[in-house]
Amino acid sequence: MLTPTTIILGIVILIVILFILSGIKIIQQSETKIVERLGKYHSTLPSGVNIVWPIIDKPRKVYVRYVREGYDGVTRVYMRQSDSIDLREQVFDFPKQQVITKDNVTTTINALLYFQITDPVKSVYEIDNLPYAIEKLTQTTLRNVIGELELDQTLTSRDTINSKLRVVLDEATNKWGVKVNRVELQDITPPSSVRDAMEQQMQAERERRAKVLKASGDKEKAILESEGLKAAQINKAEAEKQTRILQAQGVAEAKILQAKAEAEAIARVAEAVKDTKMDPANYMLADKYIATLKDMVSGKDNKTIYLPYDASSVLSSIGCIKEMWNKQ
Fold first, then answer.
1. Contact 110, 129 (CB under 8 A)
2. Are residues 91 and 184 both part of a single domain?
3. Backbone dihedral region of 37: left (phi > 0), alpha (psi from -120 to 50 degrees) or beta?
4. How many Å apart are CA 22 and CA 279, to the nearest integer?
5. In this predicted model, which residue has the larger pLDDT, 186 or 303?
6. How many structural domains compose the chain?
7. Does some domain include residue 73?
8. Segment 34-89, tens digit of pLDDT
9. Is residue 103 predicted with pLDDT exceeding 90?
10. Is 277 helix (H, G, I), strand (E, B) or coil?
């Protein structure tokens, strides 16, 4: 049977066990806790098993930002308190906000911020509600940077805007123990009227480029046709040149062959009349005269005979020819 003393002893032992267990803190990897002893900073707990004094040592609560999608499909941002500090790189997807550019155009921009807590002590004691402070600082910095640029520069200079935002935010959050690694503009949406004007401008630009390309193509086509016609004319002229050269060479060769034949004929005539007193030139002349005279009287009704003015030498040549034949 349990006596009152045994019950009290059991209760004391249970309280002691609970007291000891409450002093054991297990920290996950890449997380930490800020421990305060009697309301004053005492230590920063590393990952693993840690032992603290119950009641007098308490972890400091911090604000944690998280995103949750509601039943209506809309994503909303919430805040809660936690005694653990996440040391991993975190990303904040800020809701869309309207900013005014330098040329007074209202633009909707959505930004992403990548940061990491490097000093947990500063993140707890240098700023209250760190996620809210980072969000508001990013929004105001984004307005200031976009306000210095015109709409065209905002749309075409995202890298420049991201670099400026990162430098400004990193410098401002350094005293909070936060390192800003990267800032990205996720979406830039101009007003509908500006988008319509941009679409019309892009359409006009595309049409202008199409006309330029078509004109360039027509020009290149004309150049190619001209070059083809030129090449054809050159080839034709070259062919005519070669034809004339070949014809001239043929005429020259024919004349050369004719001259050689005549020379050979004269040589043979000279050889044949060498034993007579007849001149070979007179023989050839008489032969030509006889052939020409034959052509002159070959007509049907042609009865006229033409004799040269000085026909004595020709007649004498004919006489010599007769004597040469008689001798042969």
1. no
2. yes
3. beta
4. 156
5. 186
6. 3
7. no
8. 999 988 999 999 989 888 888 888 999 999 988 777 777 677 788 889 889 999 99
9. no
10. coil
Please indicate, yes or no, whether the overall pTM of this predicted structure exceeds 0.70: no
Question: In this model, does residue 16 exceed pLDDT 70?
Answer: yes
Mean pLDDT of the chain: 80
How is the chain split among helix, strand and coil, in percent rounded to 5? 55, 25, 20
Residue 309, pLDDT above cutoff 50:
no
Amino acid at 168: V
Of the residues 183, 200, 217, the one at which a domain ends: 200
Cα distance between the two ends of the chain = 183
Token readout for 146 is 């976009």
- Residue 280's domain comprises 275-328
Tell me the CA distances in angstroms from 200 to 194, 195, 207, 252, one per residue in order: 10, 9, 10, 76
- Contacts with 149 (C-beta within 8 Å, 6 or more apart), sequence order: 101, 102, 157, 161
Extract the runs of DSSP E, i.e. beta strands, from 177-287.
178-189
> Chain centroid to CA 166: how far?
30
Backbone angles phi, psi at 83, to 5 degrees: -95, 0
**Domain presence at residue 218:** no
Positive or negative CA dihedral for 285, 286, 289, 295? negative
